[in-house]
Amino acid sequence: DAPSIYDIPKVLHREGLDAYIVRRLGLPFHDVEWGEWDSLLAKVHKPAHTVKVGLVGKYVDLPDAYLSVTEALRAGGFDNNAKVEIKWVVSDDCESAAGAEKLLGDVDAICVPGGFGVRGIEGKLGALKFAREKKIPALGLCLGLQCMVIEVARNLAGIAGANSAEFDPTTKDPVIATMAGQEKIVAGDGDMGATMRLGLYKAKLQKGSIVAEVYGSEEISERHRHRYEVNNSYREKLTTAGIVFSGISPDGNLVEFVELPREVHPYYVGTQAHPEFRSRPTRPHPLFSGLIKAALARGKR
Known about the structure:
By secondary structure, this protein is of the alpha/beta class. Helices cover 36% and strands 22% of the residues. The protein has two domains: 1-46, no CATH class; 47-300, Class I glutamine amidotransferase (GATase) domain (Rossmann fold), CATH 3.40.50. The longest helix has 15 residues, at 286-300.
């Protein structure tokens, strides 16, 4: 048995399996340079810090459902010389303030990943409210961003009935709406197959924002898979309430990133994308690295 999954490549190399395969396939090859990977293994086995991240979802009984997210969190830990411990949190149990406090009171950071459907949504909102009020570093992915917007709308913007058209098609305040061109499909008048907004899309980031800082750029590209978006009709009111729409599609029509200002919260960031798909052990994604960095900074205060 290997000490970790990250040790497997060197185990296979020592046994000659890699050389055997490339020879059998007639592929060109050269000596392996292990410097970068050895540096990674040093961080895997001898981290200087430990960070506990609460992953709030409704599929936590099947951890592989979030494998890309947990690996991206761990890679963010490697980038900060930290071991990331995942605390699996059932979103339904965070619906009340007491439930969120009980389950998330001991974590250093919170991640709300993507998903579909209304089940567990109120719990995700409860978890994000707890993170916002307690200033716990938080990262929302896809649906996680949408939940951040709903939570701010209800509790800071005074829109008590704010919701998503996905969860309540009859809501009077759909701060999250069906994307243009998707209405008939959602209504059942079209084939839903391969109709979501899929693939790599560019975004322009606001100068001086947290996301621009962690990316080190004001123009980035991320992978997407969604059918709903922030309703532009509410952007002005939500901005007044304090949320920052820090990343927008190049045409200005679609919200790609949200955050709270640094003076309000150390790291409260959401993206409509799935950045976990672009993370690698030796190339951690900046949003996850930023989350872990903020968690470490909070722990030192």
